[in-house]
Design a protein that fits this description.
Elements: E1 14-16, E2 33-41, E3 47-53, E4 62-68, E5 79-86, E6 92-101, E7 105-111, E8 120-125, E9 130-135, E10 146-151, E11 160-164, E12 173-177, H1 179-182, E13 184-188, E14 202-207, E15 212-218, E16 227-232, E17 237-244, E18 252-259, E19 264-270, E20 279-284, E21 297-305, E22 308-320, E23 324-330, E24 339-344, E25 350-354, E26 366-370, E27 376-382, E28 391-396, E29 402-411
Antiparallel strand pairs: 1-2, 2-29, 3-4, 4-5, 5-6, 7-8, 8-9, 9-10, 11-12, 12-13, 13-14, 15-16, 16-17, 17-18, 19-20, 20-21, 21-22, 23-24, 24-25, 25-26, 27-28, 28-29
């Protein structure tokens, strides 16, 4: 099974997910999983932006999270970038990567930017219109992380960031979206160590797209080169940009429209149907201003073909979900099929998962992980306690301002 990344697929009570047989006494296709909820951190100013990676090289997944002090405090936009050291069993110790940073930290990405074998962290500063990255010192709990600039002030509304080697030179470049203030997708070429004290060269992928949000990296046509997935929520548009050109040279981008379904927000590449290509899971909705509630849903886009080349896409509805915000795919119940986890934004925010019925073109049973969690936003999935079962973690912003995770206890 191929793995796709936009950082790791990028959730308080025990969530007991039972599928009740219908009146016909039909049995569910597979038993759901049990989850136990735990709090990682509370009292954020603004919680948005998480990732999982082995930052300290001890073999387990640590967590990264951004925070920004609320506007009501005397010093506005006072941000912190945090990482949580995992003891291998899902107990997390908080450490600071950066603090007192102006500009409003939001979404982030993890990858080895300087090529030294240690995962670094790139993060957007939304209100500053900047992207910065912090260099992992190798002993991240005891040594300071050096701050570097990717772009400073020239990406208004900097919103999301992803990492990939777009020009084939062996170094991770960056792709970014810019929300309503910038309405564009841009990529930034990694200049190598000799250029880390300067801004990275920037090239626009496409501009004049209303409300760009998701930016992810995957190989959608199977040619071995990383492509870029994006959403423009108000356009509306789900799109991928084919990385074309010659290896070792600057890429050019060929646009492929996946969908113009209303209000795409956040999603991820994933091989949902197991045919060896990158499909897409996507949350549509977020708020009434983007689309009527009747059109809020989680879907997956089939990359048609065996494997597909990204030139033909077919939409399948996973399930309706009011205020759907972000969706990721992972095999939560261990049956070998990718399930979907999603967040819902707004006052009645929630985290839910959808069980893959085995025939993914059909409707997927929905199971709650947490209800009444205002403004749930980012969600990721991964084995956080080393038991070989996929767990879930998510943040919720204003109204909750928490970071929580759900331990997968396995089949009921």
């Amino acid at each position: 099974m191929r793995v796709f990344s936009c950082e790791l697929v990028p959730l308080l009570v025990i969530g007991l997910c039972l599928v009740v047989a219908a009146a016909s006494q039909e049995k569910p296709a597979a038993p759901p999983a049990l989850f136990q909820e735990d709090l990682i951190r509370a009292k954020y100013g603004y919680a948005y932006g998480i990732a999982a990676a082995d930052l300290d090289g001890d073999g387990d997944l640590d967590l990264v999270s951004s925070d920004t002090t609320d506007d009501k405090t005397p010093k506005k936009d006072n941000g912190a970038l945090l990482w949580f050291e995992n003891d291998g069993k899902g107990t997390f110790t908080e450490h600071v990567i950066a603090k007192n940073e102006d500009g409003w930290f939001e979404r982030l990405a993890v990858g080895d930017i300087d090529g030294d074998g240690h995962p670094d962290v790139a993060v957007v500063l939304n209100r500053a219109g900047s992207i910065v990255w912090f260099q992992n010192p190798g002993k991240p709990a005891t040594l300071p992380w050096k701050r570097h600039i990717i772009v400073s002030g020239s990406l208004p509304g900097a919103y999301d960031v992803a990492l990939g080697d777009f020009d084939g030179d062996g170094r991770l470049d960056a792709a970014a979206s810019s929300w309503t203030r910038g309405n564009r997708f841009v990529w930034y070429r990694n200049p190598g160590k000799e250029g880390f004290e300067k801004e990275w060269p920037a090239r626009v992928i496409e501009d004049k797209l209303s409300e760009t949000r998701t930016v992810c990296v995957a190989d959608f046509n199977g040619d071995g080169r990383p492509d870029v997935l994006g959403t423009a929520s108000a356009a509306p548009l789900v799109v991928w940009y084919e990385n074309v050109g010659t290896r070792g040279e600057l890429p050019t981008w060929k646009k492929h429209v996946v969908s113009t379904t209303a209000a795409p927000v956040h999603g991820r590449p994933a091989d949902i149907d197991g045919d060896g290509d990158a499909d897409i899971v996507m949350a549509h909705g977020m708020r009434d201003g983007l689309a009527p509630r009747a059109k809020h849903q989680v879907v997956w886009y089939e990359n048609v073909g065996k494997p597909g080349k990204g030139t033909e896409w077919k939409q399948h509805v996973v399930r309706a979900l009011a205020d759907a915000f972000e969706a990721v795919a992972a095999d939560l119940d261990g049956d070998g099929r990718l399930d979907v986890v999603a967040t819902a934004w707004g006052p009645a925010g929630r985290v839910v998962w959808f069980h893959n019925p085995g025939e993914p073109m059909k409707s997927w049973p929905m199971h709650p992980l947490k209800d009444k969690w205002p403004n749930a936003n980012s969600v990721i999935a991964g084995d956080l306690n080393g038991d070989k079962k996929v767990d879930v973690a998510a943040t919720a912003e204003r109204g909750a301002n928490e970071f929580r995770w759900w331990k997968n206890l396995g089949d009921r």
